[in-house]
Design brief:
There is one protein chain. The chain is of the alpha+beta class. It has one domain: Orthogonal Bundle (Arc Repressor Mutant, subunit A), CATH 1.10.10.10. It contains four helices and three strands; from the N terminus they run H-E-H-H-E-E-H. A hairpin with a 2-residue loop joins strand 2 and strand 3. The longest helix has 29 residues.
Length: 97
């Protein structure tokens, strides 16, 4: 069994399925847990704002917009920092002539 928590495995298992989501059996199979264990943890994640039922299929689960917003904010931060590093690099590697 994986040393990752069930929540972490659920997060990784649902990644890439944020639009339509996955059905409970698919999720349980993907993380190597029973459907009841997966469901119990998905419900906890929903209470925390990390997962939700898919509006496209009431038997499917997906990551919540809140979690996707966290990932988007992280990506934006990385881009800002990269621009700053690029400017720094350009300033210090210019030929002084």
């Amino acid at each position: 069994m994986s040393k990752q928590s069930i929540t972490a495995r659920l997060l990784f298992g649902l990644a890439g399925h944020s639009y339509r989501g996955l059905r409970l059996q698919q999720i349980a199979d993907g993380i190597g847990e029973s459907p009841s264990t997966a469901l119990r943890n998905l419900e906890r994640m929903a209470e925390d704002g990390l997962a939700e039922k898919s509006p496209h299929d009431d038997k499917a689960w997906r990551l919540s917009p809140r979690l996707v917003q966290v990932a988007t904010a992280h990506a934006q931060e990385v881009l800002r920092e990269q621009r700053e590093l690029d400017e720094f690099n350009q300033r210090f590697t210019r030929n002084p002539n």
